Each structure stands twice: as C-alpha cells, then as structure tokens.
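@channel sequence for tomorrow's demo:
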Amino acid sequence: MAELLIKHLSSPEWLAYTIAALVHCGLLLAIALCSAAVGEWLERKVSARIQDRLGIVRVGGRFGWLQPVADGIKLLCKEDIVPKAADRPLFKIAPYINFCAVYCAYLALPFADGWVALDLNAGAFFLLAVLGLEIFGVVLGGYSSGSKWSLYGAMREAAQVVSYEIPLGLCVVLIVVVSGTMNLVEIGNQQAGWFFNWYLFHDPFTFVAFFVYVACAVASTNRAPFDLPEAESELVAGFMTEYSGFRWVFYFMSEYAAIFVVSGLGALLFLGGWNGPIPIAWLLGLTADNHEFLGWLGNLLGMCNFIVKAFLGMTFMVWLRWTLPRLRVDQVITTCLKYCVPIVSAMLVGAMLWSFFLPGGVIAALTKPDSFPCSAWERTVPTLCVGGERDSGAARKEARMQSLPAVRSHAEHGNEGYFQEENR
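structure tokens (generated this afternoon):
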C-alpha cells in the first residue's frame, strides 16, 4: 500500500508508510472487535440451543444479529466506578494492557498465503509469547482492585496460565519439528492440497497432540471447565469483580479475541490453515501462476476458509462451557502437570523419531523402500546413482566408509586433548 501511495500520489515516504501502518492497525482492530462480537453472539445462541431456549431474537431480526452492538452501547453508557480502596492508576490501565497483548497477537496471525501483518520467521513463538503477556493485565487488575476476591481470581489466573503454557508450547514445538520451520505462513503452505496433507493426519503423534492442544487452548483462555479465575459461584466474577462500564468491555473483548487467536493458531498448526479439505482454489485455477487477480481471489477464498475454521473452534469452546461442569483448582493443575505435560512430551519424542526415520511418511516408505535410507545419518551422504537409478546399497556402504574416518579423527583429537590436559 505504501508503494502505491508513493508511486501514484507522489506522497512522501514517511507519510505513505504512516498511512499504511494506520490502515493495517485499523484492519486488525476491526478483526479483533468482530471476533469478540461474533463470540458473544455465539455464546448467547449456542447456550440457548443447549438449554432449549430461543435466545436473542428481538435485536437485529430473528437471529439477534445486532445484540452485540446493543450490549456495547449499553456498557459504554454505564458509570465507570473505581473502588475507594483501589490503586487508581493501575486499576485504570490494567484492562488496556490485557487487550493490547491479545491485539498484538493478531500481528503474526496469517489469514492466507502472504496475508499477514508481520511475516515473522519465528511467528509461532512470537504469537505464544505475546499471548502470555495477557496475564499482566489480569494480575494488575486483581491486585489493584482492593478486593480479596479479585486478588484470588488473579492468582488463580496466574497459576493456570503459567502451568498450561508449558504443554501448549510443546504442542507448537512438535509441529515445528515436523514442518522444519517456525514461520506460520510456511506451515500453512506445507499443508496445501487435500485434507490428508494436514498435520493432524501426518502421524499418530500429531493426531494425539491436537487434542492436547485443544485442552490447553481452552484452559489458556479461561473457558469452562477451566474458568477458575472468573468462578461466578465462588468469586462473583474473579479479577473483574470491581470493574464496570467501558473497562469491563476491554476484559470481555480480550477473552473472545484470544479465543479466536488460539482457534486460528490450532487451525494453522493442525487443520491446514487456509487450505480447505478440498483444494477448490487449485481446482478452479485461482492461483497467482494463472493471473495476479486470480491469485488474489484464491487468497480471499482461503481467508474465508481460515475464518470459518477459527469460528468453528470458538463454537466448540462455547459448547464445551455449557456442557461440562467446572473443575476444582487442584483438578485443573493436576490435569496439566500429570496428564497434558507427560502426554505431549511423549508425543514430541515420537514425532522426532518419526521425522528421523520416516521423513516422507509410512506410505512412501512402503511403496518406495529403496528411496528411504535406514537413518538420517545416511541421508547426509550424497546419493550414488548407477545407470540413472539410486543404488541404496552403495549409498549405505559409502555412508559407513565416510563415517569411520570422522569417528577416528574425533577420537584422536579427543585423546590428544585429554593427554595435553594431563601433561599440563
């Protein structure tokens, strides 16, 4: 966009890049606000269906589409109350810190091939690290409220988020090991094609890790049955007990925006990202190879596919909240440390061994066994070709012959260093 302003409107370079940055920030803010609005609407409608009610039907037509707008206007008109015992500066700034952490996570979240605000090589871990900063807003809000119930909720949040960040990060590491990159755009592109190219079906270890990721994602966003920081029956509303009006809206939007982020990250890592179960864009020829505009249409279709997957994840979390009872605090921590961490650690080791011995998968190993060496050590040796075809036996023999001098040299240098140390 900045290049277009400079080229066609002769704008100064600093002004063009400033305008482009503001437009990008506005687009990301609109996506975050829309995800929060849709999340609230889903919460009301799904809970109503589960409880055999109609739900919202009066605002915005039969399905209540404008109910989130009406709720936002109502909360903006409410009085902003600051408790007498509260630490006023911290109490006022805490909701904004919480929302900014979630908003920054959208910077590294790609919606299609190349459609990302910041195409980072370490986008997966940037996203997780920024989402982890959300805890500062929660702790500050609970601490500065001057209420023991708010403080209890904030401490529960801190313990829960810090605990579940470990298995959540290990789930991401597992996909990084399988894909060989931390770039989320590349991870999405590697799953292009039919649905069996998704990392969910790559091997048994990624399949199990997906369900661990789902449990950790639900816990990291404080959704039931892991909603201990906001336990209404125990702590009234947890760390948000003393908040009202516009600042309460920021905490509310942060929760649903974070649900969209973790759902989108799960879709990118395991469910193909913007690639559908059927490669419709490729079948219709909507690729940049045919025409630039056709490539743009293909990316638009992929973005719609990605958003649908993210909203399906949000729907699943809403359905889970109104189906399962809340766990006790000891059960939440036990689920993390006793089950999630060991399971995902075992899956990580299994995925590493799978990538080491079967880099192309079981089907390729069974159909073309000669194309697969016995170990990754042999894959480092150049392939010998006899008559234009691979001679796997010669390759293995050369690997053994080249490995012996390397081991011998390493042993000699090691012994030489050992004797020099003894003489000294």
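heads up for whoever presents: Confidence is low (pLDDT under 50) at residues 371-397, 399-424.
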